[in-house]
């Protein structure tokens, strides 16, 4: 039986009482200060749009500084998430991933659906339509804020936000670095950074470039290149101008090109000829055109003006463009049954925010702003079904049906090899937003933070589809393909008004330890949707509807701070109610539907201990209990009740423990060893909670050792997934709708060396 909200909150309070004194992870734990090598350093974050010590922010946050990102060689969010309780990332390629925050998933595909997790690059929203994933290089810090953050971050931050801040030019000195890596599967990576003041203390330039390439780690028995390869170019140029001490401008240009050829999607219930159905053995699948390709380009202009005592004005102007295309073997076999193609998946974003902040160091401070966001997205996709195999009953029978006798007649018709549905979606969304968030010290111990954001979205979606066959043979099984629009384009518009408030109260137990409690509301905007019934008299029958806005109401309590200047800890307990959640219907003609209600609660612990000046121990633990309270969907014409099931990709327990040991060796060289173990309990990969599509509990071991000199030389050997643990990133995928679920294998052991010189 499901627990009541009251019972859940009582359990949370008990767990928090146990967890407050727990030792936790390195995210919030920094390097020792120069004054005391055994002391922890204060971590500064900007989650509330102003600089604050991490312990003073009444939000559960994981923060990674430049030193931690470089020492751990975090280049992607998947590895970074293993150190972050409550954050789960499965990165299939540089262009595709699943992000989960406290059990709620935010996929990055789709031309229409709004995100559940906001991603910001230098204060610019890059959350949706293939634009989430960013290569992490030359980064100042990464902040992961968990729980609804709509008041502070706006659209798409229903259950959390990730903020990436890149390094800015240093106006005082010329510097450069060059790093190279070589590793398993012929991996090579080269990263170069150059910084130069063009006008001393006034104008500076910083350029960072990375090139990485690696062969695939899954052999394909159908021949050709191995699958799951990596091919990336990324570059960034930053220009900083400070005409006066109170005024600064940052112009940032960035570009990323991903050319990963194909991910391995292997069928797990039918073997290709000469193959098997094992999740981790060689794949057998066809390669189609076009290959996977993504281009991201952005221009950002940031203006900061301290125009009078305590008042700051900030302008954030940005343009971004994302172009993506790919093809994939949907059925994951060498039988040509299902082909998927994204022929175009393009997005153009124009955004502007003006922000005003007040803080004179007194009892009251506030920040507020207005913003405009325009998102234009175009997707053209194709889905091809082999009717010869479909009529044969694939995958039970693999012998094609080439001739079809028409019942009740003497006619025998040829059967097409490929029934193609070519669909296009155009999305135009304009969003206006206004927000204010303030803090007030009621006493020297009690602080109240509160805010609200109002957002108005105007969305117009245009849909069209066209059914053809690849061989000119008329379709039999699916005369209208997967859509009934019959080639005509239909437009649907809706407006959405959203109010997202938050309030939190902090109690300062001491100068070093705070406890807090807060409540916040997060919304994932809905969108207009057009579905089609069976044609009538040869004409389409569109149904103009909408997918409703999702809502999360989150209650949270926590404690964070330092003990004896050596231990940093953070303990958080939360519970939320999840209403009108959106999910893609099993019946593809229904599109996305609002499926019902759900709830979750959990505990997150993290922090670190400076045992000695040489040895740092850190760790993280998260407990997550999720449940669909009301969830019914139509499968094969029958209503199936999923109520009581747990969320997909939501392990109940996750653990991460790390040790970092550094000590002098000789003549200005320091040696170091870093080890990390990340463990997840069993979790399901689909909402139907099938045991045959569950990932069993597993752990990953990373090990790094090397030496670094005082004059900027680094030599390192590393092993990621040292024990070569088999695990999958996903199971089911598009083939599951046609009885052919597929698995996507995760990265095996990777061993390599890294060399870096900094001047």
From TrEMBL:
Primary localization class, coarse: membrane
BP GO annotations: iron ion transport
Record's protein name: TonB-dependent receptor
Membrane topology, from the record: Multi-pass membrane protein
Pfam families named in the record: Plug (PF07715), TonB_dep_Rec_b-barrel (PF00593)
Keywords: Cell outer membrane, Ion transport, Iron, Iron transport, Membrane, Signal, TonB box, Transmembrane, Transmembrane beta strand, Transport
TonB-dependent receptor-like beta-barrel domain: residues covered: 271-722
GO CC annotations, alphabetized: cell outer membrane
Localisation: Cell outer membrane
Family: Belongs to the TonB-dependent receptor family.
Stored SUPFAM superfamilies: Porins
Signal peptide: 1-30
Domain TonB-dependent receptor plug stretches: 54-160
């Amino acid at each position: 039986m499901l627990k009541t909200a009251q019972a859940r909150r009582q359990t949370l309070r008990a767990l928090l009482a146990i967890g407050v004194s727990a030792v936790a992870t390195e995210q919030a734990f920094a390097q020792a200060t120069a004054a005391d090598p055994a002391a922890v350093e204060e971590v500064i974050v900007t989650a509330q749009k102003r600089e604050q010590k991490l312990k003073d922010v009444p939000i559960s946050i994981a923060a990674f500084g430049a030193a931690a990102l470089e020492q751990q060689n975090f280049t992607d969010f998947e590895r970074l998430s293993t150190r972050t309780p409550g954050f789960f990332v499965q990165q299939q390629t540089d262009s595709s991933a699943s992000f989960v925050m406290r059990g709620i998933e935010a996929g990055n595909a789709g031309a229409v659906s709004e995100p559940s997790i906001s991603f910001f690059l230098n204060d610019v929203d890059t959350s949706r339509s293939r634009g989430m994933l960013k290569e992490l290089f030359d980064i100042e810090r990464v902040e992961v804020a968990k729980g609804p953050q709509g008041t502070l971050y706006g659209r798409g931050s229903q259950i959390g936000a990730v903020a990436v801040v890149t390094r800015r030019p240093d106006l005082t000195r010329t510097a450069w670095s060059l790093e190279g890596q070589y590793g398993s599967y012929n991996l090579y990576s080269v990263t170069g950074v150059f910084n130069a003041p063009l006008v001393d203390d006034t104008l500076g330039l910083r350029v960072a470039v990375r090139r990485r390439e690696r062969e695939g780690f899954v052999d394909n028995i159908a021949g050709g290149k191995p699958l799951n390869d990596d091919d990336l170019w990324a570059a960034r140029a930053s220009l900083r101008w400070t005409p006066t001490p109170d005024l600064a401008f940052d112009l940032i240009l960035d570009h990323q090109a991903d050319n990963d050829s194909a991910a391995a999607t292997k069928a797990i219930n039918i073997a290709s000829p000469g193959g098997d159905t094992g999740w981790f053995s060689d794949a057998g699948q066809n390669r189609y055109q076009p290959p996977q390709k993504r281009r991201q380009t952005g221009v950002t202009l940031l203006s900061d003006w301290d125009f009078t005592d305590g008042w700051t004005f900030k302008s954030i102007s940005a343009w971004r463009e994302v172009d993506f295309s790919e093809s994939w073997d949907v059925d994951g076999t060498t039988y040509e049954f299902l082909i998927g193609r994204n022929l175009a998946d393009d997005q153009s974003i124009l955004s502007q925010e003006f922000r005003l902040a007040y803080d004179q160091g007194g009892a009251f401070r506030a920040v507020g702003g207005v913003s405009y966001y325009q998102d234009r997205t175009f997707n053209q996709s194709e889905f091809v079904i082999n009717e010869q195999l479909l009529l044969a009953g694939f995958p039970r029978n693999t012998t094609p049906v080439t001739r079809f006798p028409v019942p009740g007649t003497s006619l025998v018709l040829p059967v097409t090899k490929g029934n193609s549905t070519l669909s296009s979606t155009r999305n135009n969304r304009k969003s206006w937003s206004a927000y204010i968030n303030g803090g007030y010290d009621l006493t020297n111990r009690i602080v109240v933070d509160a805010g609200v954001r109002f957002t108005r979205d105007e969305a117009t979606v245009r849909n069209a589809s066209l059914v053809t066959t690849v061989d000119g043979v008329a379709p039999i099984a699916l005369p209208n393909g997967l859509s009934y629009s019959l080639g005509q384009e239909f437009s649907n518009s809706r407006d959405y008004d959203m109010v997202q408030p938050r309030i939190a109260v902090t109690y300062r137990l001491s100068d070093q330890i705070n406890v807090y409690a807060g409540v916040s509301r997060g919304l994932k905007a809905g969108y207009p949707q057009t579905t089609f019934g069976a044609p009538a008299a040869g004409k389409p029958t569109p149904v103009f509807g909408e997918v409703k806005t999702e809502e999360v109401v989150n209650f949270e309590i926590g404690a964070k701070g330092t003990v004896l200047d050596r231990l940093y800890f953070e303990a958080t307990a939360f519970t939320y109610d999840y209403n009108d959640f959106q999910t893609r219907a099993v019946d593809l003609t229904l599109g996305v539907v609002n499926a019902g209600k759900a709830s979750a609660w959990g505990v997150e612990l993290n922090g670190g201990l400076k045992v000695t000046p040489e040895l740092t121990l850190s760790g993280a633990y998260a407990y997550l209990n999720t449940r669909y309270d009301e969830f019914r969907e139509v499968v094969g014409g029958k209503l199936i009740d999923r109520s009581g099931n747990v969320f997909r990709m939501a392990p109940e327990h996750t653990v991460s423990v790390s040790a970092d040991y550094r000590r002098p060796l000789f003549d200005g060289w320091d040696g170091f060893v870093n080890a990390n173990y990340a463990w997840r309990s069993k979790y399901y990969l689909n909402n139907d909670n099938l045991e045959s599509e569950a990932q069993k509990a597993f752990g990953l071991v990373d090990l790094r050792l090397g030496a670094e000199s005082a004059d900027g030389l680094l030599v390192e050997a590393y092993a990621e997934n040292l024990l070569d643990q088999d695990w999958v990133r996903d199971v089911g995928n598009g083939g599951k709708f046609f009885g052919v679920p597929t698995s996507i294998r995760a990265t095996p052991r990777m061993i390599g060396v890294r060399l870096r010189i900094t001047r």
